[in-house]
Design goal:
single chain, alpha/beta, four-stranded mixed sheet
Length: 331
């Protein structure tokens, strides 16, 4: 199948390399040093899915009409990237592989003739060198759309992608997006202090902050009428219980996530963006919690403070001391 992948960073590069290995005709879009590296040397993937060296077509825009499109850009880049490829891809099935809550709706708005769906990926991948991706933690990805059961097209696309990497079609996708948003609360603190996710969760003081951001996310989701989807051992009942227990007991949740990651340092996608000198997705992660809280007539002080600190790190191009996190975040 001809597959166009918009955005060849950590996840885009992973899907591109593995789909090419499975025999598909893959074309990717990239920019700057990433595009130069892929054109010169292809995509080099290592780690949990094996070593892959994939030579794929690459450009700033797609050049051949694809039969399937994966949008793998950062959330803040999705609209402009889709718009620049819209003439070629509108009408093809589109899968948005992205953090946050708005990706599928954005694609559907910009591509009215396309059938749009989303993928939630828990794969941990380090992408700190152009064209080079290392998988530190493999995981099943989840494909779907809306609140209903998985439809026939979602099931078909999930089976096709599973030729390269495990993907399952799920119902209640919107609730699963919220569960993934809870998981993504692991991103901000490591990015602020410049440590791996494992190091942050191992630090009792910082683990409290991460737990507080996760609990706040769950509580806002409940206020917005969300039924959390099952993802990585998390589900509606467990997350609702997590939101009620004392903060000290709630720290078990990020600790279990840290154990699942293993020993290879996981930087998190937000910190990787900072290390590449690129804008982060924080406004679509912690910032999304703040916006959803406002819609519900509530406040989200923990996530608002974390978003502000990430933006400060973006501006300073330097991490902040642990003490700033402890002082600024109301835990």
């Amino acid at each position: 199948m001809r597959i166009g992948i918009i955005g060849a960073g950590a996840l885009g590069g992973t899907f591109a390399a593995l789909l090419a290995r499975a025999g598909h005709d893959v074309e990717v879009t990239a920019r700057g040093a990433g595009l130069e590296a892929i054109r010169a040397s292809g995509i080099r993937l290592s780690g949990a899915y094996g070593d892959v060296h994939a030579r794929v077509a690459a450009g700033e825009r797609l050049t051949a009409a694809p039969e399937l499109v994966l949008v793998c850009t950062k959330a803040q880049d999705a609209a402009s990237a889709i718009e620049s490829n819209a003439e070629l891809i509108d009408g093809a099935p589109v899968v948005v592989v992205q953090n946050g809550l708005d990706g599928v709706a954005t694609a559907a708005r910009l591509l009215p003739r396309s059938s749009c769906m989303g993928v939630l990926s828990i794969i941990a991948a380090n992408y700190t060198e152009p064209g080079v991706v290392r998988i530190t933690t493999p995981a099943t990805s989840y494909l779907g759309r809306g609140d209903g059961p998985a439809d026939a097209e979602c099931t078909r696309i999930a089976a096709l992608l599973s030729e390269a990497v495990p993907v399952v079609a799920i119902g209640g996708f919107r609730g699963a997006q919220w569960t993934k948003l809870v998981v993504n609360m692991l991103n901000a603190v490591p990015a602020i202090v410049g440590r791996s996710v494992q190091e942050v969760v191992d630090d009792r003081r910082l683990r409290r902050v991460v737990t507080a951001s996760m609990r706040e996310t769950v509580r806002i989701g409940i206020a917005r009428g969300v039924r959390f989807g099952a993802l990585q051992g998390l589900g509606d009942r467990r997350l609702r219980l997590f939101a009620r227990v004392p903060l000290t007991l709630g720290q078990v949740l990020p600790w279990l996530m840290r154990v699942r990651m293993g020993g290879v340092p996981n930087l998190g996608s937000t910190q990787q963006s900072l290390r590449r000198g690129q804008p982060t997705e924080v406004d679509f992660l912690n910032g999304a919690v703040v916006r959803e809280a406002s819609v519900a007539g509530l406040d989200a002080p923990v996530n608002r403070a974390l978003a502000a600190l990430v933006h400060e790190v973006e501006q300073r191009a330097a991490s902040l001391p642990v003490e700033r996190v402890l002082a600024d975040v109301p835990v």
